[in-house]
Amino acid sequence: MDLLITIILLLFCLLLSNIISHYIPSIPTALTQIAFGVVMALLFSEFELELEAEWFLLLFVAPLLYNDGRHFPREELWKMRTSILGNAIILVLLTTIVGGYFIHWLIPSIPLAAAFALAAILSPTDPVAVNGIAKRIHIPGRVLNLVRGESLINDASGLVAFNYAVAAVVTGYFSVAEAITDFTYTFFIGAVAGLALSLLIIMIRFILRKQGIQDVTFHSLLQVLTPFLIFIVAEEMLHASGVIAVVVGGIIHSLVSERTETMLAEEQVLTENIWSIVIFILNGIVFLLLGLNIPSSIVDTVEDPSLSNWLIIGYVLLIGIVILGIRFFWSYLFSIYEYKTDKTNEMEKPSIKHTLIISLTGVRGAVTMAGVLSIPFVIHTGQGFPERSLILFLAAGVILFTLLAATIFLPSLSKNSDTLEMDDEDLLISAKKTIMVSTIDKLYLDMTEENSTAAYELIDEYKRRIRQLNYVAGTEEEETNLKMMTEIRLRALKQERSYLHQLLNEHKITEEVFGIFEKSLDYREEALSTNVQAGTRFLFGKAMRSWSRIMRKNRGTKMDRREQIRIGKEIQLNSMKSAISYLEKWQESSEQKQLVQIVILEYQRLVDRWEKPSVAFNEKIQEQKEELRLHIVDQQRAGIQKMYEKGELNREQAKDLRRFINYIESATLYEYEE
Fold it and tell me: What predicted TM-score, i.e. pTM, was given to this entire model?
């Protein structure tokens, strides 16, 4: 029961951390999740969840790296193979050796072998945190591909180096020849195992289909279980690198999927949806667990009277700077080498700024924490592992240091570093908005008296989508649009006032009736001046609620009251129609035609609702909505193709937009079939 409650609590914290990151985008989600983990550990002192390296690698690293292998662009992987292998193997060894000697020099109480172990486990990078930062500041694509590519391999190389260094401390024995042989075996057999096992599982799936087992849910589950099976066989039975095995397995899976994706379309869509949920949960839980384990990892060091807290914080800063410094010098020298040997002229000239970005993206993460927590408590002599608590503190501190350094410095370094990417994203959002607006226009043209209720509901849906896209595009654009909408609505209210004054001047309404409607317009104007998104239906409802009050004051017959309701409704309807006529004329000369059209549609929907009796939910309206939605899908696809042919979209953007439309169509068809 305790474990179940823990899992549910972690999932709630995962959701809450994403909500916080939405409202505070300057703080990466990973950092928020670490903070949540630390708070949970401090609030519930009796709560303890040990982070064992073996199950952590199986439960988290295996599926995450398998998924990365499935989606990593193979052309980029091949183009950057030298850089990726250099960072994943040579840089790991450099970090282990140079970092180890520095740590031993800085803190002589840590033996050299133990210092090598700490440096080795600090060498693997964690791209998850960097991905969160990249969504906000647009890190250059080549840098992101390098970080993601090296993380496919450096987890394995870093853990192998770490295990040998720890073994040297525990047993007091180390052989370079054995280390090189075992390192080669681990990588080579791991790759072969990943290749063979992934092909075997794919073959089993095809045999099962031939036997008539076509259930897409069954096959999707088998795909999700694949990285766990590959990792267990490679690690436990072959004693090879399960990390390398799952990466190779993911790449093989993507190669086969490309040839069968149209034949197995339903399975592909379902599997991708399942993977998106699994990856979202695992990425979040990783950092929550990291935060949970930080307090227990550092408590012994903090309570040690022989160590000053400021001194050990200084150790963390120095080690973090040196670890990133090694990455900086290696990246700069290697980029010079690549630039001079490049025959395609595609390489950019090396620069300090670009190298700093590469260095800061080398954030350390949960693999480092899981590895360092696996350090044994005693060595072969029966004594405790030298400075184990201090090593745990230093590892946790360096993880936080690299994450904070990336959060603070990457945004300023990345400004204007990849403006093309930013323009592409803005263009995609603009294209989506264009499609949504054209869809609203199409719905307005296809509207009939019979389907008007369903059409207006659909129009509301697309208007909400436009508002969401405006929010994603940036707060400045959203604020500008809101101000313009306020101005348009206030103009419409002014026209309604003019119409009421005209009725009063022509003695068609009494002063009392005029006062009621005037007060209603005041309420609406006040609401617009404070909050543009205030409920429009509520504002118009004010008029009729005020009208009902005057009815209660009059003591007439039922027929009199019905006549009063009819008159009030007629006045309200005519005032709204007057506003529509005014807006339609003003739209012709206005520069904000789309926004004016939105307000016109709001009024038209209200007029439609007032002229017809209220309609409760019924199946016919839902069917009309689904038919309209499916009808306009063709219009949307045609619009995307037209934009692509005009060069307004590139191939990838057109694919993204078509995928966006496909999701809407799939959801509609699924509901329709039910």
Answer: 0.70
